[in-house]
Amino acid sequence: MGTKRQLQPEQSAAAYDISKHISVTAGPGSGKTTVLVERYLHILRTQKLSIDQIVAITFTNRAANEMRERLREELDRILASAEADERKRWLNYKRTLDGAIITTIHGFCARLLREFPVEARIDPQFLLLDEHRAAMLLESVVEDVLSEFISAGHEEVSRLTLGVGRGKLANALAQLYRDVRGQGLSLEQLAASTAANHANEGEHSKLLVELDSAMAAFQAVRVTSPAARAKYEEVTSVELSGDIKTIKTVSSEYKANAVIFAMGSQPRKLSIPGEDEFYGRGVSTCATCDGAFYKEKILLVLPVIRVLK
């Protein structure tokens, strides 16, 4: 058995002052478990309580097991030097240590629920899901709910699924559930918070119109930077013969080894209902530009046949 570790002044203050609540912040390997073990033993020395009257909560099962083993070592150390009248009490502590409430938050809550299943209105034979199984169950429920809404023809959910993509929407809903659950919000509180922070359908439609107008104005600007605008001039003539090409404008003349003409094009429309309404929001004309937006989505590709005359 190794030498008992001496506590630093700050650690001693945390271990031996049980008259108030104490919060300890420290990095890995700094002795948090040592302080917690010493605080546990100090309570046993001064309060003369039984083991099952003390609750020690750790973050992981590994930390709980480590704390239990350290307590067992310290109890052995105390028993080796205890007086006869004290030995019986400390021996009882050691014998009942396996039943001590040294566990994680999940473990402590599960213990309470199993002790009071009627009051909690749950099956006392419930099992705790590990992180992996809980994630799988959540994903399954989200997929089932999405399928139910889409199958029922829910317009908003269907449009959201089409615009965002089912995979991304499912991940976002799962993360939203985790965030809301972590805050402890009830369904009523969530509904009230949503109503207070989101526009109604009329305001949403109005904002969409404003966004479309702003995007149209932005796309109408042919150049954006001051340097680019300074180079935007009306061309009066182009001379392409010879190795050096010449471009003349109303105010300048430019010479270069090559000239690139960016003429632009206007996509051919199909004149079908909804084409203009959803252009850029589900309807696209360039697979190279917009193809990445439709990854893992169901698409309808219409060929456009050009007749050369």
Secondary structure layout:
Layout (H helix, E strand, L loop, with lengths): L8 H8 L15 H16 L7 E4 L2 H21 L2 H12 L5 E4 H11 L1 H4 L10 H21 L3 H10 L1 H18 L3 H11 L3 H20 L5 H5 L4 E5 L5 E5 L3 E4 L30 H4 L19
Parallel strand pairs: 1-2
Antiparallel strand pairs: 3-4, 4-5
Helix pairs in contact: 1-2, 2-3, 3-4, 7-9, 8-9
Textual characterization of the structure:
The chain has 309 residues and is mainly alpha-helical. Among the domains are: 9-120, Rossmann fold (3-Layer(aba) Sandwich); 131-190, no CATH class; 223-259, no CATH class. The chain is 52% helix and 7% strand. The protein has helices at residues 9-16, 32-47, 61-81, 84-95, 105-115, 117-120, 131-151, 155-164, 166-183, 187-197, 201-220, 226-230, 287-290; strands spanning 55-58, 101-104, 235-239, 245-249, 253-256. A three-stranded antiparallel sheet has the order 3-4-5, with no helix packed on it. The protein has a two-stranded parallel sheet with strand order 1-2. A hairpin with a 3-residue loop joins strand 4 (245-249) and strand 5. The longest helix has 21 residues, at 61-81. It is elongated and about 115 Å long. It starts with 8 loop residues before the first helix and ends in a 19-residue tail after the last helix. The model has no long low-confidence stretch (mean pLDDT 82).
